[in-house]
Amino acid sequence: MARIPYADCTSEASRPLAERIVAERGSILHLYQMLLHSAPIAEGWLHYLTAVRQKSSLSGALRELIIMRVAQLNNAPYEADQHAPIARSEGVSQAQLDGLADWPSCALFDERERAVLAYTDAMTRQVQVPDAVFAAVSALYAPHSSWRSPPPWPPTTWFRAFSKRCRSTRTTRARRWHRQPASPLIQANPQETTR
Fold first, then answer.
1. How far apart are CA 92 and CA 102, in angstroms?
2. Average pLDDT for consecutive 10-residue bins of the chain (195 residues)?
3. How far apart are CA 7 and CA 43, in angstroms?
4. Is 176 left (phi over 0), alpha (psi -120 to 50) or beta?
5. CA 139 – CA 171 distance, rounded (Å)
6. End-to-end CA distance of the chain, in Å?
7. What are the φ/ψ torsions at residue 26 (nearest 5 degrees)?
8. CA-to-CA distance for 83 and 66, rounded, in angstroms?
9. Distance (Å, whole) CA 161 – CA 138
10. Which residues contact 119 (CB under 8 A, 6 or more apart)?
11. CB 180: neighbour CB atoms within 10 A?
12. For position 30, what pLDDT does the model report?
């Protein structure tokens, strides 16, 4: 059960942003229900996440591998449950998801994926990334003149923080622990309901 009650998405302070989230995402996931306790913070996260997911040149499959690996390392089941179907739709195979916990010995990952996963592991586990790991990732990405086509470090930083926030507040995807919301803004998302 979540440690903090979910925000009232129908309040005057939250409603405009809640309607925008519904328009952009189709429903309000528990993450945004938690973030809407502070509409400016929720709006900042929505804006940043939209940029990471939709405006970066990082491939969807690589982005989702980063997200899934951070979720594993941080023991963040909400994040993993939300993103496993997205990862598969972006081209990550179920076998790769199954092998992700032991990716260094799994033959299903190519050179780019291995370099990014090593970077993700280092950044998530110890924050300080060893020079060799940084160099391996940097060698795979051309020097960029703008943040529109960055290597994977900005998304890795955000997803590391996101998964820790979900764990600290015990944000959950299991509707069985919560009454169905009365607000029409909060719709049960098929990816967010229990199995």
1. 16
2. 85 91 85 88 87 80 92 88 91 96 97 93 88 87 50 54 54 40 40 39
3. 14
4. alpha
5. 37
6. 17
7. 95, -25
8. 10
9. 22
10. 129, 133, 134, 136, 137, 152, 153, 156
11. 9
12. 83
Report the alpha-carbon distance of residue 165 to residue 172 in Å, rounded. 11
**Residue given tokens 């993993």 in the structure block:** 80
Whose structure tokens read 């990014």? 116
| Residue 60 CB neighbours (<10 A) | 16
Half-sphere exposure of residue 50, counting CA atoms within 13 Å on the CB side?
Answer: 11
Q: Which amino acid is at 4?
A: I
CA–CA separation, 6 and 33 (whole Å): 5
What's the whole-model pTM score?
0.71
